[in-house]
Description:
Elements: E1 3-5, H1 11-21, E2 29-33, E3 45-48, H2 54-60, E4 66-69, H3 78-92, E5 96-102, H4 113-125, E6 129-135, H5 140-143, H6 146-152, E7 155-157, H7 169-180, E8 189-192, H8 200-211, E9 217-219, H9 222-231, H10 236-250, H11 260-265, H12 272-279
Parallel strand pairs: 1-2, 1-4, 2-3, 4-5, 5-6, 6-8, 7-9
Helix pairs in contact: 1-7, 2-3, 3-4, 8-12, 9-10
Amino acid sequence: MKxxxxxxxxxxxxxxVKELKKRVPVENIVAxxxxxxxxxxxxxxxxxxxxxxxxxxxxSLAGIDRLVLISGNEIGQRARQHFNVIEAAGKTGVKWxxxxxVLHADSSTLNLADEHLKTEEALKASGIDYTILRxxxxxxxxxxxxxxxxxxxxxxxxxxxxxxxxxxxxxxxxAAAVVITDERHKGKVYELAGDEHYTLADLAAExxxxxxxxxxxxxxxxxxxxxxxxxxxxxxxxxxDIASWDVSASKDDLFDDSHQLSALIGRPTTxxxxxxxxxx
Length: 280
């Protein structure tokens, strides 16, 4: 039984491979990467894999039984790229695909949701067994801003009092490894999120607590936040996306209290305080 992981050199993919190595023989794991040489440290078989190259993907999926399809990072291109992967998987006889979607993809206002939903629909229509992991936000998406908050004296955003049920990348990676190694998860759709929820004001308070500095949360209109992000050197399109994600967070699109993630991994999800400490 060969299990392959796409995006294996990415922040999530690397952790999925690490978790799989705890559960199955190393010779049964294949890391798929656009730049194979970057995957050499993973300690598993590596094959080239580019979402934009159907012929390459078909060759690299030969002999693969199960596939963890980690969503691509090119917003606006992902539905097409994922279709390419699913088509290649069908041609080579992949029996099961586990896909990392987004929380509440069928109802979220996140601009990311549409491409994920289209991918989910393509998976369901492919005839290949599937499991959909609707991943919530990574806590690291927000703790990455801690350095800037400390330098500027405030945590900035447009999320208002929106509830955020994030979890660490390691939590989501463990879930993917648990699912792909147990056939009982076939055909299921999981809404995955952290056990606890917080607002960005809560995050600012935690940063203040751990650093001994007064770091308030400053909420601002979406357009103003976008301009601030651009002033930090973030490209206009990316700044627009980040600001819009915060607005979606203000509508509780990043909130879920079903605790399906902790149930899958058999332990509580990583607490916010622990993630903040790690980031600091």
